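Our consortium's second objective concerns turning raw sequence data into structural hypotheses that experimental partners can test. To show how far this objective has progressed, the report includes one record in full. It was chosen at random from the queue rather than selected for favorable results. The single chain below, 343 residues long, was entered without modification.
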Amino acid sequence: MSEDKSVPTESGLFGAVSYVQQIGTDAISSVGGLLGFAHKTPAQDELAAHNAAVASVRKDDNDDDDNDSLIEKAHLIFEEWCDTNEREDNDEAKTQYELYLEQQSQLKPVPGSPQFKFVAGWRYLQKKKYAQAMDEFMEGAAAGSPECQCELGAMHLSGLATYRRNEEAAAEYFRLAANQGLAKAQFNFALCCTNGWGVPKNESKAVQLYRAAADQGFPGAEYEMGMRYALGKGVSRNESVAATWFERAANQGHAMAQTNLGIMYFEGAGVKKSIEKCLFWYRKAAKGGSATAQNNLGDMFENADGVDRDLEKAKEYYKDAALNGHTRASERLVALGGSLPSK
């Protein structure tokens, strides 16, 4: 994932609150892990592909749900779970994987169905057999599977579909899946509209799509809505509303939303100033790999900014941020007598 980028909300260097945003295709959501969240454990990868089995365990005793709706519920459950725990090779992943193995025979996609094509395509992706994956996704997409359409979009955007990046094809597949209400596709198509990938830039359309995905609880879209209200991009600037969106995403483990919420509590922007809450969210974000949060914590402990001065803690946080490519943190680490980490 690319380094967090700080974006001033006002012109000029003084008095501006700077939030972090994700730049480029790293933000694209893909169940197959092609882009965006590409560091799951093997157990989490398997769960994301075969979450149909767990859907039978998680459903609320509603026997009226059909296979496809259960599978879609499981997609949402495990995308959220994997995104939250993507950097932790923990016992929970192993436990959930064992649960999958135990339950997989109870609910399987019907052979030949669009969901079956999705699972087959995903398995090929994990083996880096991209041509076969594309064939499976194409068949599923032609049958109307929004998951397959979304994966095809991700493959075209990454260049894995035809060994070259095709933004127009990516945008079209995202659009098709978004029109069926798939939150991650709405989010991805919104990114296309924001960045002009395969479609003309259209921030108004992007906001509509981000909001639609955010209303379904998609954390990346909630974060993007927070950014738009924080910056006044496509909407009237409102830091209080921005904080609400950031908090929704932060509660789902979105590291950059957690970072921005920490910034808001530090500055008292859109929320009541609170160093305690600032530290809470910075620490959450730092654990999730946010270089900006790690750097900011280092800065707070170096300068006794709301906390007791602790240069050892400062160096630890600067070192973590330096490992994540944060230039200023590297400089401060050296200035405090620390050694730059080897990558």
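The partners drew two points from this record. DSSP finds 17 helices and two strands in the chain. The beta strands are 5-8, 18-21. Both points have been shared with the crystallography group to help prioritize constructs.
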